[in-house]
Model the fold of this input.
Amino acid sequence: MTGGTNSELDLYVNHASYGPPTAAVAETVQRLLATAMRPGPTTSAELHGEHERARAAVARLTRVPVSRVALTTSTSQGLLQTAFGLGGEVLLSRDEFPANVYPWVRAEAAGRLRVRSLPGAGELLPVTPERVAAALTPAVTALAVSAVDFRTGYRADLAGLRAVLGPERLLVVDGIQGFGAIETDWSPVDALAVGGQKWLRAGWGTGFLAFSEQGLARVEPTLGSWAGAEDQARYDGTIHPLVAGAERHAVTNLSPFTSGALATALEELAAAGVADTAARIGSAAGTIADAIDAAGLTLLSPREPERRAGIVVAGYPAGAAPEAHARLAAAGVSSTLHGDSRIRFSPHVTTSPAALQRLAALLRG
Ligand SMILES: Cc1ncc(COP(=O)(O)O)c(C=O)c1O
Done:
């Protein structure tokens, strides 16, 4: 199987699966690796400086103060640490990507909280403020939801969800399918867990957790370890108090290679502009949605501009999608097959008009 070509006809429309790291990300990692291979007295400190560069870049793009930003290795890690830090009853759709289901179920099994499932699983239903309002009970302390649904590309109404939750309940968001693909106000979110390997194009092993003031205060650092403690290099056999900020959730010192990769990817996004990037991704996604309509397939993604993101899904008659997916792959198209009736497309700013035209022709074919 051949990889992406970076040419005008790059038919890699699978950024919801993973985004190819950018050239600048690759250069950063290579430079940091080369530095690590020629160590001197200050090399370790120099390399770990990438950590703060990445936190600063996260702070800039989320508009959350640096003190409330922690780096992670993945969305899953951020969600796991959040889940084990909460109590009460957590409302959750069982249709969330498993990374946003297992942490809650494991925290429940550990006796820390109870999971309350949102009724209506398995029907491609979006998590709307109305569904959440209908399922709320006084015992619910938090809602865990994706910013963008990995199955359909439905963009959650974060402000609407916040409104029905009220000021006390926490809004925990799996942001990996949204951050870098959409422009939105993240301020309604109390804990935002993001991985950098998809829309941010930072590569695997990158991610962050960003908290609201309330989120930082209420998510206990249950899994915070020595790297989240004060005076971590004072080896006196005692358990030190954890630091005051989000880094209290830190488990160990992260790889400078992944921190550098995340910092570079976020700085590139900031330089390109979130609004411009999101508009270009949205426009490419819209062109694919039109092509799905023109091909007589069923569009399973939202049509309303405010509910759309970078993911576009074509519905096929039951059993027909695997063959269509194989035909697209044979023509060089990278996409994701879901079950036997759905194909998911996820273009980026690198997806050219010529590539979109070619994809439209292949869909019709
Ligand atoms: C919505 C969603 N959350 C989480 C993940 C997994 O994220 P990570 O590998 O960063 O834990 C994915 C896809 O892999 C996803 O689509």
